[in-house]
Structures are given as structure tokens and as C-alpha cells.
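Okay, is this right?
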Amino acid sequence: MSARSEYRDPALARKLAAAIAAEVGDRPFSVMEVCGGQTHTIYKYRLREILPPNLRLVSGPGCPVCVTPIGYIDQAIALALDHAARVFTFGDLTRVPGTRLSLEKAAAEGAEIHAVYSPFQALETAREHPDREVVFLGVGFETTLPGFGLAIQRARKAGVKNFSVLLSAKRVPPVLEALLASGEAEIDGFITPGHVTSIIGARAYDELRARFRVPMVVGGFEPVDLLGALHALAAEWARGGHANLNAYARGASYGGNRKAQAVIADVFEERDAELRGLGLIPKAGYGIRAAYAAFDAERKFDLVTDSRAPKGCVCGDILKGLKQPPECPLFGTRCAPDSPVGACMVSAEGACNAAYLFQ
């Protein structure tokens, strides 16, 4: 049996589901899986069908595309259309609706938009074509931030003056803190994101679980990964504990990736940040430090936009764990993967996208 098939073994999945049911009993138990990749697995493999009905899984705000503000999309489009910049982005951002256009539709109007896998592709283009401004759209959580930082460090070292990053990077712990402090969503435990935690380390959640007395378990992305994390979480909750556990030791550690953390500390600083549907959250984002101001598109260009959220979309409530995708009045009618209204329907990590594809 291959390593991947082991983590998708139906017999092991059923065994774990039975163990979870035994821990939970007949009490209601509400768990938020933070990462959009985890949400996708839950829907794709129909994990809810083998779990007890009193165990409620709710999707969290860990989909970076979903929480990217509309104003950011409008700024990116303005860079391409009004400033004639070559704009490079991860592909799943191209279809996110702005106020008037998406990046995909802006390209149809003459904007130069390139979907790439890495910021280094944008940096290489800037080096090869010094006559044009090149902007990379730095969207993500802590997972992708070290790559953005390395690209900026290399641009400064190489003296590349026509490369910059329009940053919309978010921090997971402050977002979870805002959810817990609001008291809106009834969450008994969290499955924290494996990829983010591989960078920041499980220790990043210590203060939260102690302050709010809620158990947290780092989870992976395969079905058995998630069921194993749920089992650890259910056992901790059943005994009244609030430990910070790691069920994804093959990918994440307590201390995280120190080299990646050093890059982040050198290039970026913590800032208050707006998240789409969630509002302004203290220290929930990053900005580019003054020492690297020449590579900060927000400083480099005069970007004025008038952004407005789409009417009827409840993506914010879904990201908070207050509603499930089918409860949105637009779900599956006006809003579908081929014609998204809200950001939760665009990305493969979005809860609405997963619910539409796999329900």
C-alpha cells in the first residue's frame, strides 16, 4: 500500500469514525476546519456521511482567495489597465469578482495578466524586460509568504527596479482570535491548517487555546489525516481539555520552519488587515517593511478605487462558520463555479465551490 493510499484507506477511515463517535457520544460537538484544502477533502470524500450526526463540521476562513478584499482585486486591475503594468498572479485569483471586473475579464479588455505558479517567474520577466513594470499579486497566508519575501530579497540584491509586489497576506492566529472573541460561532474545537503550521509552528496557537480554553489539533489534508485529527480533538474535548495537539507531524512541527520565519521577519511587518466578509482585524495581515519600500506596489503606485461588495452574498458568514454554503440565497443559482458572485465559489479551496462540486 502506498503512503497516499494509506491515508485514504476506507477501512481505517471507518474505524476512526467509530472511535470519534464513541468519544463524542450523543452530545453536540462543533468543529471548524480552518483550511480550505481540508474543506475540499471533507466534501470530496463525503466524510460527514460516516461521522455521527451530532458532530457539526463548519468551514473556516483559511481560503486565501476567499478572504481577499474586493478593493484589492480592483487595485490589481487598476495596475494593469491604468498603469500598464504586467500583472502576475496565482491562477485561482483571476476569476475572483471585483467591483466591476475580475482579472480574467480585465484581460479581455486589454490588461496583461499572467497566471503563474511562483513569484520568481514574475521576477525573471522583470529582469528580462526592464522597460515595463512587473507586479506580482502576493495573496496568501503564512504558507506562501516566505516565497514572496525571497523574491523581494533577490530583486533588491540584483538591482531589479521594475519589480514590485501588491501584498494581501494574512495571519491565521489573529483571524481565529477574532472569531473566538466575537462569540458569534459556537466552536468546540479547531482543526488548524497543516501547511500554514509547517511555517509558523503549532506553538502559534498556544495562547489562543489557553485564553479561550478550546482544543486545537493540527490536521493534514487526506481523509485519514482529517479523521485522525478529529479523533484527537474529540478525545481532548470529551475529557474537558484544551490542549494544542499535532496530528500532522509528518508535515508540521511545534517550532515551525525557522528559515522561513527569518525571511518573513526580515521583509514583512504585522499590520491590521481587512478580510473579505470579516472586516478589519487587528494584526491579521502583513505589510512590506520600509527597507523594501521600492518593491511595494502599494507605495509605488497611486491606486484609488471605489469598491463595493456584491449584494446577497453571504460568503462572510460562511467563513465565520455561521452558515453553510446551501444557506446562501445565491448558491447554485446566480452563483456557481462558472459564474461566481462571491469569492467562496471561485477557489478550489472555497467552501461554496466544494459544496457545489461534491454535494
Summary: Residues 223-238 form the longest helix (16 residues).
